[in-house]
Request: fold
Amino acid sequence: MMIKKEILKGKTLEELRQWAEASGEKKFRGDQLFNWIYNKMAVSFDEMMNIPKELRSKLNDTAEINVLNWVGTQESKTEGTVKLLLQTALGHNIECVIIPEEERVTLCVSTQVGCPLDCKFCATGLMGYKRNLTAGEIFEQYAIAQRYYDRRITNIVYMGMGEPLLNFDNTVKSLDIFSEELSTGISQKKITVSTAGIAPRIYDFADTGIKSKLALSLHSCFEDIRTLIMPINKKYPLKDVLDACKYYGNKTKSRITFEYVMLKGLNDRDEDLKALIKLTRRIQSKINIIPFNSLKHMNPDGFSAELVPTPQKRIDEFAQILRDNDITVIVRDTQGSDIAAACGQLAAVTT
Reply:
């Protein structure tokens, strides 16, 4: 009879200490395991040379570390963006993306296999929803990416496949792991969690004490238009979501990032500008303008197939008017669109 092995990746420092003691070992062995798994990113117990050989042998028989398989890699020919295709033990495909810039390297991680929200501008929503990722599966995207990439990853954004706040416990647990001193060394302030607007969970997230940044997929200040492109707005109206964002900003003393995918004729009008200016007067924030990226690789139908990107000239004009009103605006460069790795394009489609 085969013994089911305990998966250690995904356990917090305290959980590893408790597991070590329950296994008849000293508590400090949990600290050693935590450091090897989350800092040195060991892939086997045999690498853990400050742990006795007898214990390493025992660990090999009773526990395991790795929770994802590295299936393949695509690299953009234009920007150097790298997309990693990973697979869970049950055969589900997910993607994460390495985004290199001159002064930093950002990793975009996924929190779900697919997504249940069906945002009309997003490829992940078109693939449907399979399940939540564990905290270990969220962290291992970082571990695999850092082993692969020759520069240090400095920033993490929870903006890949899935809605992080619908996988609340595992998202928070993974953030706790990242924030430990024995872990990666990435500050909570260098981590951003994006949400489509799960209002009750935004309050809960603020109350965890985690100081990560919060980004809201806004995309329109008008309830009817936002509902058209983001059906979740029916359940959590924008008014309620913005109240929750204001609470988060006040509780964590941080600025909210409003993400804004620009769609021709839907949210790039003069009235949209006026509404954004009014919103930023109410909530301390900045606006991240994102060009709409093609969904052709998903063969969309219905409303998703009708979406058209705002012309670059209008994007530039839109951004400048916001800046003229003393609003911090970042116009995101499209990176990785040639490998379907740009914002809104992740869908773990194998070719």
In short: The chain has a mean pLDDT of 91. Residues 68-339 form a domain with the TIM Barrel fold (CATH 3.20.20.70).
